[in-house]
Write a structure and sequence with these properties.
The protein is mainly alpha-helical. Helices cover 61% and strands 5% of the residues. The protein has 4 helices and 2 strands. The chain has a two-stranded antiparallel ribbon with strand order 1-2. Helix 2 runs parallel beside helix 4 and helix 3 crosses helix 4.
Length: 151
C-alpha cells in the first residue's frame, strides 16, 4: 500500500492488488470473519450483568410457553381441519418440519445472544423449548399450506 500526500492536504492511498490462486480455506476465513462480526454486533445489546428476577418476571417463561402452545394448537387446528391431500409426499412434510426446526433454532440463538435463554430449572427449559418448537413447526405448516405450494 502506498500513501502519497497531495497538495491540497489530502492523502491518496494506492493499493497494489496481487492476484493469487484461489485457496479453498479462504472461504472458511470469510465465514469466520462474518461470524465474528455478527457476534460483536449481537454482544452490544447483551451485558454480562444479569439482573435479579423479581416476582413479576419469575413466571414469564411459563406464560410465554403457554401462549406459544395455545397459538400453535389454533394454527394446527386450521391447518389439519381438512385431511391432507393424497398426493402430498412425505418429503414435503419433512422439509416443512426442517424449516420449522431451523426457525426455532434461530429464535433460540437470538434469545441466547441477548442473554434471555437461561433457565433455573430443567422443566422450564423443556417446556419453553418444546412449546417454541411446536409453535414454529405449526407456523411453517400454516405458511406452507396457505401459500398453495402443496397443490
Amino acid at each position: 500500500m502506498i500513501i502519497k500526500p497531495s497538495g491540497n492536504g489530502r492523502l491518496y492511498i494506492y493499493a497494489k492488488i496481487i492476484i493469487m490462486n484461489f485457496d479453498f480455506f479462504d472461504v472458511f476465513g470469510i465465514f469466520s470473519d462474518i461470524a465474528d462480526m455478527l457476534n460483536n454486533i449481537l454482544m452490544i445489546g447483551s451485558g454480562s450483568d444479569k439482573p435479579v428476577q423479581d416476582k413479576k418476571s419469575r413466571h414469564l417463561t411459563e406464560k410465554t410457553g403457554v401462549v406459544f402452545l395455545i397459538i400453535a394448537f389454533v394454527i394446527l387446528f386450521f391447518v389439519f381441519k381438512k385431511p391432507l391431500p393424497f398426493e402430498l409426499h412425505i418429503g414435503s412434510l419433512a422439509v416443512v418440519s426442517i424449516i420449522g426446526t431451523l426457525l426455532s433454532l434461530i429464535f433460540f440463538l437470538i434469545l441466547y445472544r441477548f442473554g434471555k435463554y437461561d433457565f433455573t430449572s430443567v422443566f422450564r427449559w423443556l417446556f419453553f423449548s418444546g412449546s417454541s418448537l411446536l409453535f414454529f413447526h405449526a407456523l411453517a405448516f400454516y405458511i406452507y399450506f396457505r401459500s398453495g405450494i402443496s397443490g
